[in-house]
Amino acid sequence: MEAIIGIITLGFIGAIFAFVYLASAIRIIRPYQKGVVERLGKYQKTFEPGLHIIIPFLDRISKVDMRENVVDVPPQEVITKDNVVVTVDAVVYYEATDPVKLIYNVANFYLAATKLAQTNLRNVIGEMQLDESLTSREKINAALRQILDDATDKWGVRVVRVELQRIEPPMDVTEAMHRQMKAERTRRAQILEAEGDKQAAINRAEGQKQSAILEAEGKATAIKAVAEAEKFQRIALAEGEARAIETVFSAIHAGNPTGDLLAVRYLDALPKIANGQATKIFLPYEVSGVLGAVGGIAEAFKSGTAKAAESL
User: Fold this and answer.
1) Is 239 exposed, middle or buried (0-12, 13-18, 19+ CB in 10 A)?
2) Is pLDDT above 70 for 176?
3) Which DSSP letter does residue 105 get?
4) Domain limits at 206?
């Protein structure tokens, strides 16, 4: 009986030992992990995701997270090229590319990456002026990512990106920047207002100029129209006088072209002769004809006058 109990006990203990052994031999690697296997302190192989069996107590497995991770770089004071102290902090995003290098080439990757980022962040910003550092975040991010990526390549890590969280200058510098910004905006507002006044004055001057031009053109058109009217009037009068002269000349020429014409000219000259200023009187050669013509005209005038009186 005691032998049976001993055998049962030994079997139970063996079963427990076998269960523990099998449990220790089974390893599950998650989809985002890789397992680095060591046997008696020496690298053996790398497990891919899935179910794996190892030799307990001889094999040791280290799991490496292959997902993208982040390193938070704590705030630190950095001196810019123009000797201004600014407070800077950043975050570094990385992912493992070689789990073997990540385990054997660096003892504490998180601490190493943090110190490396702090050092190179001081170097990058230290080569910039304050204004440039405040407006060149993308440039700083790209430069720092390139430096960290080159340095961490031997650690089996790839730096995906670097992001600056803040760059804060001292309080007095910040206040001076606010005053400068306010003064600049005031200056721009004054310039815009002056430009607006200038443009308005130009527009008013252009309007007055156009108005004066249109008024002058209207006056010129009116003067031209009046001149044209006077011109046509004078032409019409001249044509009427010419026709009258032609008619008179024709009538005189039809009667006595020489004597009658001289008589008319003599009658036109009589007022000048009668004004008392003439000292000499020249009579035409055919004075008898002229006097006869004058007499004829006088008789005609008298007869016309008499007929007019009789008609009255």
Assistant:
1) exposed
2) yes
3) S
4) 193-254
pLDDT per position as a tens digit, 61-101 = 889 988 889 988 888 888 888 888 888 889 999 999 999 99
CA nearest neighbour of 157 among 207, 93, 218, 201: 93
Give the Cα separation of 90 and 124 in Å (integer).
Answer: 13
Are residues 89 and 157 both part of a single domain? yes
Domain contains 164: yes
Tell which residue, 71, 51, 74, has the closest CA to residue 61.
Answer: 51
Long-range (24+ apart) CB contacts under 8 A made by 122-128 are 122/76, 122/78, 122/79, 125/78, 125/80, 125/86, 125/88, 125/167, 126/78, 126/79, 126/80, 126/81, 127/81, 128/80, 128/81
- In the chain, what is the straight-line distance between the N-terminal and C-terminal CA atoms, in Å? 195
pTM of the model: 0.53
60 and 96 both lie in a single domain: no
Residue 197 lies in a domain: yes
- Work out the pLDDT band at 312, boundaries 50, 70, 90: very low
Q: CB under 8 Å to 152, separation ≥6 — which residues?
A: 94, 113, 116, 158, 159
**What is the rounded (10 degree) CA torsion for 286, 289, 294, 298?**
170
Angstrom distances, CA of residue 184 to CA of 82, 129, 181, 188: 22, 20, 5, 6
Q: Are residues 159 and 75 in the same domain?
A: yes
Count of domains in the chain?
4
Per the listing, tokens 């980022």 go with: 117
